[in-house]
Write a structure and sequence with these properties.
Elements (H helix, E strand, L loop, with lengths): L12 E14 L2 E15 L4 E5 L6 H8 L7 E6 L2 E2 L5 H7 E4 L10 H8 L5 H10 L16 H14 L4 E5 L7 H16 L3 E5 L3 H7 L2 E6 L2 E6 L1 H12 L8 H10 L4
Parallel strand pairs: 3-8, 3-9, 6-7, 7-8
Antiparallel strand pairs: 1-2, 1-4, 4-5, 9-10
């Protein structure tokens, strides 16, 4: 069957009345946790969509839906106008790279990890990728398990870029980095988008959300309380939240809920 091809007018990802309910078996019967509730948003092409909200608000679930790692309990998610349920998950994941917050490397060296993503890759090509991700280009022979948390975070981004994706899904990719390396990663992602890519980026950092976002989604307790232009979000919420700097705090959750920022 021929897959439908669509234009960018469909947007990058469309969440159509999406609900995700996770059922956990406990002693007294099943416990249902609602991680996303009736989410209706359209993420734009060729831009960085920032996703903010307190811990447990459904941000990572939103990213996992985009990469077919989770499926909606009800509703549907579309990628460029095509329902994800109709796409080949493996092919889709080559187009849409996943950069989780916590990474378990593959056994072996840094080179071995990059070869998983790009089997035909060469050391000179890998050295360029490592530099783009603020890693030492001479670290290819290091054992991946021996890398620090921040180095592993950058290796997973490097590995995602090695697949030459069209989209990157990033779950707090700079949370363990110092400002210098954070700036390198931000520049790399800006370059990626300038060259025609797109990103969906989860962050708790107020300044980073303001600095990097072309579009912004705010989630609280699984509900979308804002989606739209970042400047509109910060005009409504920024002055009162900026002192705390942390968009993942419970104080931010209370503020966003009370403010009722839904567009």
């Amino acid at each position: 069957m021929r897959e439908e091809r669509v234009t960018s007018e469909h947007g990058l990802f469309l969440f159509d009345n999406v609900r995700v309910v996770v059922e956990t078996k406990v002693e007294n019967g099943p416990f249902c946790e609602k991680t996303l509730l009736d989410v209706n948003i359209r993420l734009p092409e060729k831009s960085i969509s920032i996703v903010v909200g307190p811990s447990g608000s459904g941000k990572t679930t939103l990213l996992r839906l985009c990469n077919c790692l989770s499926v909606p309990t009800s509703g549907r998610v579309l990628f460029r106008g095509v329902p994800l349920a109709k796409l080949n998950p493996l092919h889709h994941r080559r187009q849409v790279g996943w950069v989780p917050q916590r990474m378990v490397p593959f056994p072996g060296t840094v080179r071995d990890n990059l070869l998983v993503a790009q089997p035909e890759g060469t050391d000179p090509n890998f050295a360029v990728l490592l530099e783009r991700c603020a890693l030492d280009p001479n670290c290819l022979d290091r054992v991946a398990d021996a890398l620090s948390g921040g180095e592993l975070q950058r290796l997973v981004l490097c590995r995602a870029l090695a697949t030459q994706p069209e989209v990157l899904l990033l779950d707090e990719p700079t949370s363990a980095l110092d400002p210098v390396r954070r700036d390198v990663i931000e520049h790399t992602l800006r370059t990626f988008v300038a060259e025609g890519g797109a990103g969906v980026w989860v962050t708790h950092d107020f300044a980073q959300a303001r600095r990097m976002g072309d579009f912004l989604v705010a989630l609280v307790e699984g509900r979308c309380v804002f989606h739209g232009a970042p400047e509109a979000f910060f005009a409504l919420a920024g002055g009162e939240m900026e002192s705390g700097k942390d968009l993942g705090s419970q104080a931010a959750a209370r503020f966003l809920t009370e403010k009722n920022l839904t567009e």
